[in-house]
Amino acid sequence: MPEHHLSEEVLMAYAAGSLPEALSLVVASHATLCPSCRADVEAYEALGGSLIEDIDPAALPEATLSDIFARLDADEAGGASEPWGSTHTPARRDFENSSIPRPLRDYLDQDLAALAWRPVIRGVEEAEIKLAGAGVRTRLMRIKAGVAMPRHTHAGEEVTLVLEGGYSDAEGHFARGDVQIADPSVDHQPVADEGEACICLVVSDAPLKLTGPIGRLLNPFISY
């Protein structure tokens, strides 16, 4: 059971369909791995459905009503709905790596081992996931067992979901299914657990800023 979760506000926004696609992917993947948050999302969706039933149809534009009923019909049919506003077409293929949550699996066209991993620094690789939305990066990160990331903070917000392995920093230990939200107030140095590589889904809206003695000198030359 994950110990680090998303806030109620984020889960409610997801249930309402108001999150950007990248964050919706994180929430859906986390909820797949976290029974507690999955139950909360289902409760918020049920609440939203009951509120819709109480709305006077005459108070809503016809287009809005048709959109609502189309989504309700899809849910009742038992189909897995895409995040609202998503333009993504699911791949729906079977992977050998069962550690990939179903929502994320639908965005990939191959197993984790076959992805186009790009070296970032020694012991750290990334594979980009192309999603709609300007100014937001979505990627998988793979950190070799026991490797420490450079000490850094963030110019914006970064949301990290652990898929395999785990890591530790000043805020605690993060294992499979855990989510960490880092912003400019967080200055940390994540260290991957020993024994296996740590693989994470990461969404960020601004580059990180190195804070170590040498890192500060390198900031003008990086855009990571």
TrEMBL record:
Q: Which domain of life is it from?
A: Bacteria
Q: Residues in domain ChrR-like cupin?
A: 111-203
InterPro entries linked to this entry: Anti-sigma_ChrR (IPR012807), Anti_sigma_zinc_sf (IPR041916), ChrR-like_cupin_dom (IPR025979), RmlC-like_jellyroll (IPR014710), RmlC_Cupin_sf (IPR011051)
CDD domains cross-referenced by the UniProt entry: cupin_ChrR
The protein depicted here goes by the name Anti-sigma factor
Q: Which organism is it from?
A: Pelagibius litoralis
